[in-house]
Design a protein that fits this description.
Strand content: 25-35%
Number of helices: 12
Structural class: alpha+beta
Largest sheet: 6 strands, mixed
Length: about 500
């Protein structure tokens, strides 16, 4: 018996649980792609699997519907892999440890992968149910969406006849998305001068930022959440400005460009005699930041962890895993430049839309910070619904990097999905929603990125709508999927296909 046994619709939750057993972080999708391909072959469906591990499965039209226009159902099979510092989970090999909490499915200590496992579960359930009354269905399972939509970018769409696309990658029941921002990734690299640690009165320790909410860098960028990497830089600046002796060997935080980091650490060496004052300064900074963000992200903490104290494993690892070997640290000038680079490049909302009230037009997020190979690497996700504004932000990041002797590389660009004033698919889906639930859905454009823009470029005349069940705190360890909403939106999808 599975954890989700007994939940209805049975096939939806059966396949969702099966997917949680298969590691499927971005760039690790072969196993789940093979699972979906084998599923199709076992049932005699026309199936295509490409070198990127995208999968397309064709379900012939139901009897009497052979003349109806085909419908494309689409979602991505990779997931954001985040976990708590206490979690021992290995995303390369371990199944997710899921459980039910009231109306929600959650995973212990990790992201759940409801984004976008529920889309795959919906499609597999439909394909496994001959009673579903539908036109020709073209089920598209894409890969590497979370790292720049690489699967959709490389997808061969020549076998697709449909020009109606239902994307199942939204997280709010009753909200239909009909347009989204475009984006691009940026990696800023700063060469570091690493020097021998000469002093003999230092203590190895960790400065740790924790307790933050994190979130999705698109849908949560306007929620005034703290970026852990930038808060760590602020902490280091505070300490160096006060004249404390501090040598840094490593800085790291965040795991995905499109997730707001909720934890970060710096491996440091300190003067024994200053430890109490450093702790006091960090405690004061913690209270300051909590006051600044008391209504949006007020539980953050900046602390110093020494060997022999609580959570001393972090400090032990700092000493043991120094990537430059024992005693190599950033020079004071390099540390100052690293802090300056992190804080000089903007983060968060750059501009709100002048056309749609409440919509973020342009933003960027520092998602990953790490020191490796003698360089500080900062990886950002840039988004904008206006192409020229996106380019202006690219230029801004590049010139800031250049001024601090760093380099900026931009990659994985994807286009905005433009809103259509007329959409037969949107009208049909709104009508079915109203008839089924007795209320009008919201129709909106979002700042987060969806694959619809890429697919619209490949399929001229494409009419697309994105929808999905209620999910909360995606891309974080607090991610949860509503059971009742998942059931309701599956029933709704069946009615749309029938209509």
């Amino acid at each position: 018996m599975g954890i989700l046994s007994g939940l209805k619709p049975e096939k939806v939750f059966y396949y969702f649980e099966e997917l949680t057993k298969i590691p499927r972080g971005s760039y690790n999708e072969k196993a789940v792609s093979d699972y979906i391909t084998a599923f199709a072959k076992e049932r005699g469906f026309e199936v295509y699997q490409d070198s990127l591990y995208n999968v397309i499965i064709i379900r012939p039209a139901s009897a009497g519907r052979e003349g109806d226009p085909a419908v494309i159902l689409q979602g991505h099979i990779d997931m954001v892999c985040e976990k708590t510092t206490e979690s021992k989970h290995d995303f390369m090999k371990d199944p997710l440890d899921i459980y039910i909490d009231g109306d929600f499915i959650k995973a212990k200590g990790t992201t759940l992968g409801g984004d976008d496992g529920i889309a795959a579960a919906y499609m597999l359930a439909i394909l496994d149910d001959p009673s579903v009354n539908a036109p020709r269905l073209e089920c598209v399972f894409t890969t590497s969406e979370e790292v720049g939509m690489e699967g959709a970018s490389g997808l061969d769409v020549s076998v697709l006849k449909g020009r109606q696309l239902i994307n199942i990658d939204s997280e709010e029941e009753g909200t239909f998305i009909t347009g989204c921002a475009g984006g691009i990734r940026a990696e800023v690299r700063l060469p570091l001068e690493m020097t021998e640690l000469q002093e003999n009165y230092v203590a190895p320790a960790v400065i740790k930022v924790s307790g933050l909410l994190g979130g999705h860098s698109g849908s949560d960028i306007d929620k005034q959440k703290i970026n852990a990497d930038r808060l760590l830089a602020r902490a280091l600046l505070t300490l160096t400005n006060k004249g404390f002796y501090i040598k840094v060997s490593q800085m790291s935080g965040g795991g995905k460009e499109n997730a707001i980091p909720f934890e970060s650490t710096a491996d440091v060496f300190l003067d024994h005699s200053q430890i109490d004052e450093i702790k006091k300064t960090l405690a004061e900074l913690t209270e300051t930041v909590r006051n600044e963000y008391k209504n949006t992200d007020g539980n953050g903490k900046v602390e110093l962890i020494l060997k022999g104290e609580d959570d001393s494993k972090a400090a032990d690892d700092a000493e043991k895993n120094n990537p430059y070997g024992d005693g190599l640290v950033m020079s004071d000038a390099s540390l100052r430049k690293a802090i300056g680079l992190i804080l000089a490049i903007p983060n968060g909302i750059i501009k709100m839309s002048g056309d749609i009230e409440g919509l973020v037009e342009t933003s960027l997020n520092l998602g990953i910070m790490k020191v490796q190979d003698g360089e500080l690497s900062l990886i950002y996700g840039l988004r904008s619904s206006v192409g020229s504004a996106k380019q202006a932000l690219v230029d801004r990041v590049a010139i800031i990097a250049e001024s601090l002797k760093a380099t900026a590389n931009f990659y994985n660009a994807y286009p905005a999905w433009e809103y259509k004033s007329e959409s037969a698919l949107r009208e049909k889906m709104v009508g079915v929603f109203n008839e089924m639930l007795g209320k009008e859905p919201a129709v909106t454009v979002i700042h987060a990125g969806l694959e619809c823009g890429l697919l619209a470029e490949k399929l001229p005349g494409l009419d697309a709508v994105s929808f999905g069940p209620d999910m909360f705190d995606i891309h974080t360890v607090n991610e949860r999927l509503s059971i009742s909403s998942s059931a309701r939106m599956y029933e709704y999808l069946l009615k749309v296909l029938e209509a």
